[in-house]
Each structure stands twice: as C-alpha cells, then as structure tokens.
Design brief:
The chain has 286 residues and is α/β, with parallel strands linked by helices. It folds into two domains: 3-126 and 232-271, D-Maltodextrin-Binding Protein, domain 2 (3-Layer(aba) Sandwich); 128-229, 3-Layer(aba) Sandwich (D-Maltodextrin-Binding Protein, domain 2), CATH 3.40.190.10. It is 33% helix and 24% strand. Strand 2 (58-59) and strand 3 (65-66) form a beta hairpin. Helix 3 (68-80) packs across helix 9 (242-256) and helix 3 packs antiparallel against helix 10 (258-265). The chain is elongated, with a radius of gyration of 20 Å.
Length: 286
Amino acid sequence: MNTSMRGLALAGVAAAVTATTLLGTTLASASPVITLPKQFQHATLVSPAVLGYPPYAYLSSANKIVGIDPDLSVAMGGPLHHPVTLKAASFENSLLGLQNGTYFMVTGSDITAAREKTLDMVSYLADHYEFMSLASKPAIGKTISSLCGLTISTVAADSSIPILHGYSSTCTKAGHKAINVTTFADQGSAVLAVASGQADATTATVTNLGYVNVQSHGKFRLDGPSFDYVYIGIATKKGNGLASALAQSINALIANGKYRAILTKYGVQADAVTRALVNPNPVVKK
C-alpha cells in the first residue's frame, strides 16, 4: 500500500476492526448482465474494509463504514447483480482472507509486478502525487518550471523528496531558483506549514490531498504538476476467473456515472481511470 497514504491510520483501529459491520447493496435492474464464475454465483460475496485510512475506508461519526473502497465495493454489486457485503479487517488479514476464501476480493492494493505474479489485479484508481496550495494565493501552474523558487513541504522520508530534488536541479540548470524542500513529521504538519505561510505548497498523493481539500471547505486548491503515478487495484485469487467480472463491474459504474460520483464525494476525482483493466502494466504513464 502507498506509504504516505497508509500513514493516515487512525488511533484505535485495532479495536474497531474487532467489530464486524455488514452492509449490502440495492441491485440495479438496469445494470448490464455480468456473469460471475460458477463458484461465486450463489456465494456470499464479502469484501474487507480496511479501516483507518481516510478517505479509502474509515468509520464515520455514526460508526458507519465509509470511504472510497466501501462505497465502490457496495456499488459494484449493482452491475454484478449480486450483493456485496463489507466486513471490517486489517490489510494483512484481508490478504490472508482472500487466500482462504473468506473474501472474494481485496480493494486498495498498489498494483506491482510482484503482486501480479501471484494475484489477479484490477485497476480502479490511478493515484499520484500532486501539490496543494492556498486558494487565496496565485495558482502555481502545471509545469516543472513553475515550481522553481518555491518552498514545498512534505513528510520526512517521503518518496517525493528525491523527485523534488531532481526537479530542483532542473530549475537551477535552467538558470532558475532552486526548490526549497522542507520536511515534517506528518502530513498534518506539512499542510499546516502551507496554511501558516511557511511553505508555498505541500505535496502528497492526490488521494490524501483531495480528502484534506474537501475537509478544508475551499481554503486550499489542488495545484501544480502531477507526478509519480501508481495504479490502485482490486486483488483476487490468481486464475479463479473473477477479475474479468470485477473489471466489467467497475467499467459499468464508470459508464453510468456512479464511479465518478463516488470519487467526487471524497474529493479524489483526479484519481479516476477511464477504464478498469485486468493485470495492467504496473508502470503508469500519464
């Protein structure tokens, strides 16, 4: 899982995981017919909700499982014409549950070449790094040169740091000012640096920043060039025939607009893919 994103784990997740929460779907009669492999046609389809990673999956103030992954998982039951049930779990236990048959799929998995050797993966998000600045300040711009001379905050040891240093070298070689990279212990502190004027912008995955942006009610804007793309996927057991049906289900939600509506709800529409793919090339080019 993406390190920056997974660093948002909420305190007390372990206790929440022990409480199982079940949700169902309302089947959409107008959805296209998708044929599930025979072994799943009369089975209870249970998907794990890995809590503590907003906006991917977390508990609301009403103790309800919410987030991108739970919403999409439940919505997929429409095109599948089969209800999807959610059960709180840890990421490690969700992968174990996939192998022993407790779960039919696991959402929120970075797609890598190593994982595609042992799992079938279906892409449903293209996460990437972006920048966030104050909405009251002039927009940064979408080119690398627009970052020259800016102070950018990020989390210490984040994978964006060497990339930003490379961009800074590009700036200075072109005769522009260097990028000043300043690091903080966590993403909240990096965002606070922007809010207080210590930094011109912060960088993190667009999933993280999109969620922060929605919560800020217009204080910030997603801004600047995008970089370091990675597919987020649904994992299924290798060779069980389920991946194709899941990809078709996601694509049906893309076609009917429900997919984008869910992403927009959490402020991460920039993560949208145009089409879900089975075992895509893990090197994402944008």
